[in-house]
Amino acid sequence: MSLRFSVRLLPAAACAALLLAPLLFGQDTRSVSEPRLPPVCGVLDARLSAPGGRLPAADERRLDTARIQTAIDSCAAGHAVELRAQRSGNVFLAGPIRLRGGVTLLIDKGAVLFGSRDPRLYDLSPGSCGVVDRRGHGCKPLILADRAPGSAIMGDGTIDGRGGESLLGQKLTWWDLAHIAKIRDLQQSCFRMVVVRHSGNFVLYRITLRNSPNFHVLVQQTDGFTAWGVRIDTPRTARNTDGIDPASSTNVSILHSWISDGDDDVAIKAGGLGPATHMTIADDHFYFGHGMSVGSETNGGVSAILVRNLTIDGADNGIRIKSDRSRGGLVQDISYDDVCMRDVKNPILMTSLYTTHAGDLLPEYRHIVLKDVHIATPGRITLDGLDADHRLGLTFDNVFADGIRPEEIRAEDAEITLGPRMGNLVPSGQGVSATRAAASRPGTPLDCAGRFVPFAATAGAPNSAENVPSADHAMYVAADGTGEFVSVQQAVNAAPANGAVIHIAPGVYRGSVTIDKPNMRLVGLDRDPSKVILVDDKSAGSAGGTLHSATVKVRGDNFLAEGITFENDWNTTHPQLPEGSQALALLVTGDHAIFRDVRVLGNQDTLYVGSRNCSPDAEPCAPARQYFTHCYIAGNVDFIFGDGKAVFDRCEIHSTSHHGGFITAQAKHYSAEDSGFVFRDCRLTADPGVSGVYLGRPWRSYATVIFLNTQMGGFIAPAAWREWHPGKTQRLKTACYAEYRSSGPGADPSQREPWSHQLKASQTTAYATPKFLDGWKPEARR
Length: 782
What we know:
- By secondary structure, the chain is mainly beta.
- The protein is built from 7 helices and 62 strands.
- Strand 37, helix 4 and strand 38 form a beta-alpha-beta unit.
- The N terminus is likely disordered.
C-alpha cells in the first residue's frame, strides 16, 4: 500500500545529513561491553521450597530479609553476595532490601528470590501499601539502590514479585488491586521490583524478573545504567507492570534483553526531575506489552536516543512517543534503526495529544528518524503533531508496512522527510507535508525472517503460583491517559464488530462520537454522571442539518449507557435563533437502547429518539425501542423528538430558560405506525421564570405521547398541548395526546386542549413498559 501525493524534493546531501545526525549523537556515550560477575564476599543458601510454585503457609513468615541485608551491608565494594539454591531448598523470601554502593546481589541459576506477600513490610506510612485510593504510591520497592553507585543485580536466577498471589490476610492479589483501581479510576499501591536512584553505573545482568506487582525496573536521575541479557516475564493482563523505565537519566543501555509484560516494555520518561538523554536500546526482543515508548512525561526533555535491532512480536504498541499539553517538552534526535514488528496493534503511534489535559507544557517532536523498519502485519499508524506551529518532525528511510489500509493511517500536523530509499509507508493528511530526496530510489523491505522467535524463558527456578488475571475485554477511556484510550471514539473504533464494554473515567471528552456497532455499552466510572461528560458544540447551521449536529449518535442495536452526561453546548457561545440553532446532544436510532442515570443537556432539539426506516414512504416499519430510567433531560424547544418508541421511567424533564417551549415533538407518520413516547413517574421542572411550556406539539400528524403519574410544575401551559403551526396545520385532531393522574400545579385537566385525553386506569395497561415495548423488559438487563 502506498498513498500518492506531491512532494518537495530535497538535495541528496541535505537528506543524508538529516539521517546521520541522530545516528551520530543518539546513543549511550559510554563504551558498554558485556559485564562480568564479581568475586563473591559471602554465600547464603536457600532454606525454603515452593512445591507447585507456592510456599507452605508456615513459611510465609520465615523471611530472609535480615540475613540478606546483613550480608550486603558487610560486603566490600567490588564483590557480590551470592544467593544459592541447594537440594533442600531454592527459594529466598524477603521484604524490602537496600543495595550498597559497589555491591552486587548475585542470584544463582535455580534460585529464586520471592517478594513477601505481606503489604505491611512495604508501607511508606502505616497502612499505605496494598490498598486502592486516590493517592497511590504508598509502597517501598522490593530492591532499592539509592545513591549506591556501582551496585548491581546479576546471575542466572530469578526475582519473582508474586503479583498474582493473594496478599496475606486478603483474598485479592496485587494485580487485582491494579484492576480495581482501573475500573474505579483510582490509584493502587503495589510495590515496584527494582528502583534505582542516583546510582551511577548500575548493572542488571542475566537476571530474570517475573510477576512484579508494579513496574519491574524504574531508573531515576542516574548517570550510567546497563541492562544486559535481562529477561522480564509477566502476563500481558497484569496492569502497570512496565519492564524497564529510565526516567530523567543519562547514559542508559538496554541490550540483548527479552521483555514481555502488561504495560510499556521500555518507557523513557523526562518529567520535573530532569532530562532523559543518551540512551541505547539494542539487540532486544519485546513480546506482550506496550512496546518501545517515550513519555508521557517529556517536559524535562528527551534527546539522543538510539533504538537498533529491535524485534517486537505481539505487543499492543510498537514504536510510541506520547505526551500532551500538561506534561510535554522537546523530544529530539530519536533514531529507530533495524526494527521488525509482527502482530502489533499500533506499530507506530506518535501523538502530541495523548490526553485532553490543558496546559502550557507543549510537546514538540523533532528529528525523529525511522530507518529500515518493517511492519510485517497490518496495524494502525498514528502520527499527530500538536498543531500547525508544533508539527511532528519525522524522517522515513526504507520504512515498509505490509497490508495496512489507508484508513488505518492517521496523520495530522506532521512534517515528513523521505530518505534516499523509498518505502511504501508515505502518510498524508491535514497539515502533513513531505520532502523527498532528489536522488531517492525504491527501497527493499528489511528481512525479518528468523527474527520472530519464542520468548527465551529461564528454566530451573520455580515460578510463583500466580493467578493470571483473565483478559479484561472491557475497554477503558481516561482523559488523563491512564486508560487504554483518551477518547470515546478511539475505543469505539477499536471495539470488536460484535460490541464491547467501554468504561469512561471522570473527565470532559470533547468531540462527536458515532456508535454503529451492536452490543456497545458505555459506563461512567463515577456514581455522579456529571463527572463524565461527552460534549460537542455543533448546530444544525454549522453541521449541515439537525441530525448531523449530535454530540453522540447511537445507531447500533442493544446499546446501554449509564453514569454519563451527553451534552451539546452550542448555545453557551452562540445565541439561540429561530433557525440553525438546533443542537443535538444525543441521537438514538438503534433498537433496544437503554440509558440509566444519564444526563442529556441542550436547548432546542436536545434528544432525538428515532428509527432508521420509518418515514411516510416506508409503511409499515418497526420503530426502534428505547428506554430511559432515572435520567435528567434538559432543553426548551422540541427537546425530546423523533419517531422512536421510547419509555421515560422516573426521569426529570427540565425546561431551560426560554420564552415558552415544547417538551416533545413526536413524529408518528401514519396511524398504523407503532411508535410513541411514554413518560412514567417523571418530574417536570424548569429554570426560574420559565412559563408557558407545552407538553408537546405534533411534528407529524399521528404523534403519540402519554404522561403517566407525572408531577408537573406551574410553568406548564394550561392547555398542555399545541398545534404544530396554529392556523396552518391541523395535526392535533389525529394525534394521540393523553395523561393519567398528572399531579402538581401544572396538572389541571379542566383546561386541557380538547383533542387530548385523560385516561382511565384500565386504559393505562397498554402503556406498561413490557407491553408498550413489545415484550422487551429493559429493567431486567444488567
